[in-house]
Amino acid sequence: MNQDRLRFDLADLAEEVTPVDLRDRALRTSRRLGIQRAVATSAAALVVLAAATGTALAIRPNSQAPAPAGPSVTVTAPPVEPSRTPSTDPSRTSSTAPDGTTDGGSSAAATFGRIVYGPSLLPNGASSTSTVRLQSWRPGDDPVRLLSVPYEAAVLNVAASPDGKRMSWVDGAGAVWVSDLDGSERRKLRDGVDNMCWSPVWMPNSQQLVVRLTAGGDTGVLDASSGKFTKVTGFDGCHAVFAADGTLAFADGSDGTIVLTDRNGKTRRTVPDLGAKGSRYVSFDLSSLSPDGGRIALFRIDRNGTYGDAARDLLVNAVLDTRTGEEVALPLEGRQLQQVFFQPDGSMVVRVRSGGGYAVILVDAAGKKITERAEPSALRDMQIVAALG
Fold first, then answer.
1. How many structural domains comprise the chain?
2. Measuring CA to CA, which residue among 381, 385, 379, 386 is closest to residue 144?
3. I need a surface site. Which of 192, 226, 241, 304 has the fewest CB within 10 A?
4. Where is the composition biased (Low complexity) (predicted)?
5. Contact 293, 249 (CB under 8 A)
6. What is the distance between the terminal CA atoms of the chain, rounded to a whole angstrom?
7. Other residues' Cβ atoms within 10 Å of the Cβ of residue 26
């Protein structure tokens, strides 16, 4: 889209609505409009100005975030039991995979688990008001059809619990739902939940979700059984992901940093050399965090690049060490990286373009290739939303 036309359109919009209306509209509809336009016109989603609860996704790198909302009262979250982090230093062996693929001399203990797929945002995708089926695939087996969810939710916010038993999503009306993988035991937990910037993120115990309410912007813990909500301060970004040890990471849209905190929002650190003044890169989209919080899969862009909107994007072009900011080398063999998801043992499912389709590479915690498998053609127009181990 012509940048001058975009500037004029945004200026016209600013004259017609108040700043609060613009922020609210950008937060809740930018990606939704992108889905609708992709379906109707085969055009890419419009780059928009977005902000939520003191967080802004800026069109220009030097834009300033709006002032945060007034102070909130800290409430202690209900106790949670983080999942135990398995060892990430298994022994290594060399072998040949059953399909003839030569393993990369890495751990024989790490294996592909179930990979959950949802639809990609494509020009020929489903209608934004239709429902679509998720699928799961364990390399070596056939894909399995899972529950049906609204197309918009499948693209924007659907998430799998760490124990692999339940899915959560927020529909277009702001209602958060949970169900078993096959769609049974479907229940609405509550209304008035953000469906784009902060989609429901499962805590490591698979019993609670962290959600953001649309009224007031409060973020907190939602019990997946009772629906009880408990406010927690310190969660003020977008696209949060949990590690098995309870570390939470999210994108701070004001300057493109990635923030890591504990499950109560108390401690706080950022990934070095990302988003801070003088850094080459910024990031507003992350998809997965290693079990110990030490590595993160995200989409990293030049700070002078195009930033996109407030909606979730699961594309990945880098894995970084969260303590040093250094990039983790991956065995891509010259192919284009698409997605990365950490499994419970610290290994990675790495999706790459391969010929006319895609392949998934199993990479151990040290960054060594174990094996790879070609994806079935039925999954070509889908994206990975979870790797369940």
1. 1
2. 379
3. 226
4. 82-99
5. yes
6. 41
7. 23
Would you say 161 and 147 are in contact if contact means Cβ atoms under 8 Å apart?
no
User: What digits encode the pLDDT tens for the residues 88-103?
Assistant: 333 333 333 333 343 4
How far is residue 216's CA from residue 237's CA, in Å, rounded to a whole number?
A: 15
Q: Is residue 23 part of a domain?
A: no
Token pair recorded at residue 75:
């409430």
What mean pLDDT value characterizes the chain?
A: 77
- Cα–Cα distance for residue pair 190/243, rounded to 1 Å: 25
Please check whether residue 34 lies inside any domain of the structure.
Answer: no
Give domain status of residue 107, yes or no: no
Distance between CA atoms of residues 252 and 265, nearest Å:
14
* Pairing verdict, β 369-374 and 357-363: antiparallel
Residue 146 maps to which CATH number? 2.120.10.30
Question: What's the whole-model pTM score?
Answer: 0.75
Residue 7 has pLDDT above 50, yes or no: no
Q: Which candidate, 145, 93, 86, places its Cα nearest to that of 118? A: 145
315 lies in a domain?
yes
Task: Give the Cα separation of 234 and 77 in Å (integer).
Answer: 12
Q: Report d(CA 342, CA 338) in Å as an integer.
A: 14
Bridge partners (DSSP) of residue 369 are 363
Segments forming the whole domain that contains residue 273: 115-387
Grouping H, G, I as helix, E, B as strand and the rest as coil, residue 320 is strand
SS3 12: helix
